[in-house]
Task: structure prediction
Amino acid sequence: MARLLSVLCLFSLTLVYVRAQTCKKPADVAILLDASGSIGRKRWPKVAAFTKSLVNSFGVSEEGSHFAVVMYATNTAVVVDFDDFTGAARTPENINAKIDEVDYNEWKGMTYIDRGLDTANRMVFTEENGMRPDKKKILILFTDGKQTKTRDPYTELDIAAQPLKAKGVEIHALGIGKKGKIDVDELGSMATKPEYVYTAESFDDLLPMALRIIELSCDLPRKTTSVKYNAQGNFLSHLFT
Ligand SMILES: [Mg+2]
Result:
């Protein structure tokens, strides 16, 4: 029985993979990754796999999309800059290799989403850091929690997101976790539109959710019929579960 289930799981994953669409419109895309202690060493590879699937789907090339990765917890860091690779070296493989180099053991800590937004605004979405003024700008924020409010002073997230939105950055906010662990209203306070809030309970839902993000951020027709959504367009589950 277990064997049959694992074969079925493999089948559904393959199906999700095959249906992945590629974004042909060039955009400057940054992903803002929660690296706080709640992620944990075991789940970090799922976050990395999600990030790499986005890199693959956005059609990274010199003329195509450019990609940046910011991590945040108590501190923040830009781990992939828009300008890390140029010309023929700007490939999904090179960017994904940098994501593979990230050592989650150096992270953990609190969930300062506001600091992550501030870093994305000051150190990624600027022309000095490689942002192209004439291209679409997309920020995909991932968290498995909520803004830390009980320690240091923090900035309310709608305020922290404002400078990015003022530059025309379209913000997609994605939360993984059970009710109470994530705050849908908080995600909504950052997202550019209500449809750009994505929620699911399991880290195993990250990969299929990437497809929905690609569809919405790239104005592609909905083809990911292998996953289900609720009335708000948020991810619910695989059809094969
Ligand atoms: Mg956390």
